[in-house]
What we know:
disordered N terminus; mainly alpha; elongated; 6 helices
Amino acid sequence: MEQQRNNGSLNLDVKKINFPLGLIGAIIGVLLGGVIWFAIAKLGYIAGLAGFLIVFLSIEGFKRLGKGIDTKALIICIILSFIMIFLAQWTYYVVDTKEVYSEWGITLTFQETNDLIIEVLKDNSEIRTDFIKDLAIGYGLSILCSFSYIKNLKKETKDGDTLEQNREAGLSDITHNETDLNYSEELYNSDSSFHAEVSASAEDEV
Length: 206
């Protein structure tokens, strides 16, 4: 426990963390969150609301496969989530743009679509505002989710420290009780020996 506090870890048992599997779980989580972001955007709703979900799935994925989470893992989950939020938003714009031009009978390559979106975002303030708004909401909710997790993990760590302190205090009480018991036994044995000697002396005098 002392080593955990010195390392600044938020995990209650660092030894149980399987980092490679946890990283896989985090990646799976952000991918699922990205799909949900894309689906929400396609339905015409504010996709940024999925930002919270992306971070949540990332952290939960790490915790489930990694058997725990610490500060380092939490930071990685947040970084992965931020990257996925942007990629999910950009993918939606790419797919939506390709579909619009396809309806017009124009086929665009992926690179052509990317270049077109960059130009549209530069020239069209309304589309640029919508793009930034969704990202801002997504990042804002993801940060909120991250702070919530950090707060909960710190609370768990504090509770774990309290339990450990209580356990150590209990062991200390047991040790003191054993010491007192041994001391009492020594006093009793010493007193018994003293009475035996007195009795023996009295018999000799008689």
